[in-house]
Design brief:
Blueprint lengths: L2 E4 L8 E4 H14 L7 H12 L4 H9 L17 H51 L15 H7 L8 H19 L5 H19 L9 H11 L12 H33 L1 H4 L7 H12 L17 H10 L3 H10 L2 H4 L11 H11 L4 H17 L7 H13 L2 H8 L8 H11 L8 E2 L4 E3 L4 H8 L14 H10 L3 H10 L13 H13 L17 H9 L7 H15 L3 H19 L2 H5 L9 H5 L3 H17 L3 H10 L3 H15 L11 H16 L6 H25 L3 H7 L13 H7 L5 H26 L5 H27 L5 H14 L1
Length: 837
């Protein structure tokens, strides 16, 4: 065949095509070209542009990229007045400002939405990760064989629950009852008694204690630190929170003082010959006996022999360290002026006993007295006299305790001779802490100095890992005690809950059960609200710990599980509404897990609940919890459970709302209900109506709307059923009951506007109702036309047929006017109407 060679203007390789191929390609391109380009005008324009050297293809491409946007410019004739020009400028300025503001608002909204979405995703991710890593405490243990089984039958407690868990369960129940009654309950006392019983059982069983620091010591620290807090009380005001923070710091310091006093007595008992203590010693005599042991290699001391080593400041410090403040005052008062020369008296300090009293009563000295003590301390530092076995170091230490000066404190902490263990260091830092106070120090060198804060101490301790404080993991509870003494409650819980020793087998989290009940205790005593833990934002959610622990009982003992679930909501906090909502959500969760409706709710109304009535004696509170659970069921498409809960809570109106919605979803003119028992819904609806009649607290209009909707749905079901059976006569007979359907043309406009006020359950079925009504009317018209009739009867039937035709015409108009009715319904009715004309 003949070939045509075509050279590409872009320099691409040439191609060869046959004539037939070229004709086929030309035809294909002709089909793809637009019709507008084939007009004479388009061809003339192309020739004109080509004569001017303009490439039409490039021009078309450029024009497709052109975007026309309105601009704010001056549109004025050449000659205008100044007022017109100013008005135009003002209008343009306003429009420009509005446009810029809208653009800025849109950009800010997009950025805010993006930030919120990212934050919610991050929170959900963190919660998922933490929940997947939540440790499981040891609740159940293998039931012993043999005679122990009979013993378990005599006890009302599940024999497979560990004794430790069983003891905590009793405490948890008492806390819930105390919160319900409003009577404070000393939970820590019962826990301490349980610890003593556990210790006795371990001792009788010959069990070996794994570490020197026991769980009993941990709970003793908790009891000491929380001693100022009131059981069942949540501090709310800023003043109360500040006061409680200061009181807890003081109680933590007091615990360290009592612990050190115990250590002093133990040292005296271990070294009776060196101590040389009499039969009925005073506290000051105990301090001196301790100093005899401590300085046994230094020679005679001043209180044993005249001219001995001066230990006045040593005695004073150890009185402070043991918490013997009254003995410290007596010591200072008993010292003669001669011994005080060059020390306090020479520094122009009027009365050291008065300073100690003021410090003991108020927690700090006045600004002027602080300055006096600080100046004398600075003088001692300038002299740098380090003789007499640390005499001046202890003297500066006492000055620092009284005035809490930062410069003096830094000097004291730099002296390794004074603090040889973490307990002494921690006590000194807690003495300096001024939590809950806004004192500013005024010295000649350091003005407007911020007081020592608890957060600084927590940050300083956080610089080292946990093993640094636990003797390389040998005493794991020491770190938890350290966190408790510095009021890091969430941090202590997180550490205990996640601690996994490498040298123990079996239970991976030996302290998880302690962490769970520490959460409950801290919440019950109101210390979570104090905000004393700098790591609380990054710590594990305490409420989740309690909730996850309660899940252990969900199947075997749902009543106990709900005890923990209620406290998990209390730990989460957030006020009455938030707590009730959380408890309702957890109740729904537990009902799904256990299906123990009778155990948890009891039979009858919300006032006769079993476990719930014991935990929440107040009827309104119980009702709120059940309603919250029911709302959660609705949100999770658990409609059957929601109806049950609403009825149990004495809320038949809410139950009827769900019944109407489910009833509307269940009935259909063409399909059978899937998985929904309509008869059951109708029975529940009738029960809700019966109970609703006796309630006067429900809005009358709302009650009437839901009642009418339910009755109308029952009629709709009958209509649909008759339609499925092709019983058009019955369908026609039911139509007068649907009062919202027009029967005359003049009613269409009003009825169409009123369609928006119909109940939502009726609206969803309105298209099917209108369609069935039209079909039923047309069938009745055809039936009457087919009847053999006399002239008189024919006249009467003709009149009736005209009425039916008018009624069908009104329905068609109604279907066209109402927006919620699809267009095909109106079209189908018009077709039926035209076919009958």
């Amino acid at each position: 065949g003949k070939k045509i060679t075509q050279a590409d203007p872009l320099g691409l390789p040439s191609i060869e095509r046959g004539v037939d191929q070229l004709v086929e390609a030309t035809a294909r391109l002709a089909k793809r070209s637009s019709q507008t380009q084939q007009t004479n005008e388009a061809l003339s324009a192309a020739r004109l542009l080509a004569s001017e050297g303009i490439d039409t293809q490039l021009l078309n491409r450029d024009l497709r990229e052109v975007e026309i946007q309105p601009t704010l410019e001056e549109i004025l004739p050449e000659t205008c007045t100044l007022e017109e020009w100013l008005a135009q400028v003002q209008e343009i300025s306003i429009l420009s400002a509005v446009r810029d503001s809208q653009a800025s608002t849109q950009e800010y909204f997009k950025q805010k939405l993006s930030d919120i979405t990212s934050l919610e995703w991050q929170n959900a991710r963190n919660k998922f990760v933490l929940s997947s890593q939540t440790p499981q405490a040891n609740v159940y243990e293998t039931a012993p064989n043999g005679s122990d089984g009979a013993t378990g039958m005599e006890d009302d407690r599940d024999p497979t629950i560990s004794p430790r868990a069983s003891a905590f369960i009793e405490v948890v129940k008492k806390i819930n009852r105390a919160m319900a009654s409003g009577i404070p309950y000393d939970a820590l006392r019962d826990i301490q008694a349980s610890n003593e019983d556990m210790k006795e059982r371990e001792r009788s069983a010959g069990a070996q204690v794994g570490s020197h620091t026991s769980l009993q010591s941990l709970w003793q620290v908790v009891t000491s630190v929380l001693s100022p807090a009131r059981a069942g009380h949540q501090p709310e005001s800023k003043e109360e929170i500040a006061s409680m923070r200061a009181a807890l710091c003081k109680s933590a310091r007091r615990h360290l003082e009592r612990d050190y006093a115990t250590y002093v007595n133990e040292e005296i008992e271990h070294h009776p010959q060196l101590a040389m203590l009499g039969g009925s010693p005073s506290r000051l005599q105990q301090i001196r006996a301790f100093l005899r042991i401590r300085f046994s290699d230094k020679g005679a001391l001043d209180f044993d022999m005249a001219g001995g080593i001066d230990t006045f400041w040593h005695q004073l410090y150890f009185c402070f360290r043991c918490g013997y403040i009254q003995e410290a005052i007596e010591l200072v008062e008993s010292v003669s002026e001669g011994l005080m020369a060059g020390d306090v008296h020479a520094a122009n300090v009027s009365s050291l006993p008065d300073y100690i009293r003021e410090w003991q009563e108020k927690g700090e000295l006045s600004v002027s007295n602080q300055a006096m003590v600080r100046l004398d301390g600075e003088r001692i530092l300038r002299e740098q006299d380090r003789s007499n076995f640390g005499k001046n170091q202890y003297r500066v230490l006492i000055y620092t305790i009284l005035c809490a000066d930062r410069h003096l404190a830094e000097n004291v902490l730099s002296d390794q001779y004074l603090f040889t263990n973490i307990e002494d260091f921690l006590w000194f830092k807690l003495v300096l802490v001024r939590e809950g106070q806004l004192t500013t120090l005024t010295s000649s060198t350091y003005t407007h100095e911020e007081p020592h804060r608890l957060a600084e101490l927590q940050q300083q301790l956080a610089q080292y890992p946990a093993n640094y404080y636990t003797r390389d993991g040998k005493e794991p509870l020491l770190y938890a005690i350290l966190l408790l003494l510095t009021l890091q409650f969430e941090g202590a819980i997180q550490y205990l809950a996640t601690y996994t020793p490498s040298n123990l087998h079996g239970d991976s989290f030996p302290f998880a059960i302690e962490a769970v009940h520490l959460c409950i205790i801290f919440s019950y005593y109101g210390v979570f609200n104090l905000g004393t833990d700098i790591r609380s934002r990054g710590s594990m959610l305490c409420s989740d710990i309690v909730h996850d622990y309660g899940q252990n009982f969900a199947v075997r003992d749902p009543a106990t599980a709900f005890e923990y679930y209620c406290l998990a909501a209390e730990v989460k906090g957030g006020g009455y509404v938030s707590i009730i909502q959380t408890q309702g959500q957890l109740l729904r969760e537990l009902l799904n897990q256990s299906r123990a409706f009778g155990t948890l709710l009891g039979a009858g109304g919300s006032g006769s609940g079993a476990v719930l009535s014991k935990l929440k004696p107040d009827r309104q509170q119980r009702q709120d919890i059940i309603v919250s659970a029911a709302v959660g069921c609705v949100q999770n498409a658990q409609f059957h459970e929601a109806m049950e809960l609403f009825m149990h809570a004495g809320k038949p109106f809410n139950a009827l709302e769900i019944i109407n919605k489910r009833y509307s979803d269940a009935i259909s003119a063409t399909e059978e209900s899937q998985g929904i028992s309509i008869d059951d819904l109708e029975q529940r609806g009738n029960a809700a109506l019966a109970e609703l009649e006796g309630q006067a607290d429900v809005d009358i209009r709302s009650k009437r709307e839901e009642t009418n909707a339910f009755e109308m749905l029952i009629l709709t079901r009958k209509l649909f059923q008759a339609f499925k059976e092709s019983n058009y006569k019955e369908c026609f007979q039911l139509l007068p009951e649907f009062a919202f359907l027009p029967i005359r043309s003049e009613q269409v406009s009003k009825y169409a506007s009123d369609a928006g006020n119909l109940h939502i359950a009726i609206k969803e079925k309105l298209p099917q109702i209108v369609k069935i009504a039209g079909i039923a009317i047309s069938e009745m018209m055809q039936e009457r036309r087919a009847i053999q009739r006399t002239p008189t009867a024919a006249s009467m039937i003709s009149s009736s047929t005209q009425e039916l035709k008018m009624r069908l015409h009104s329905l068609a108009l109604y279907a066209g006017y109402v927006k919620i009715i699809p267009e095909n319904v109106a079209t189908e009715l018009n077709i039926i109407l035209n076919g009958l004309i």
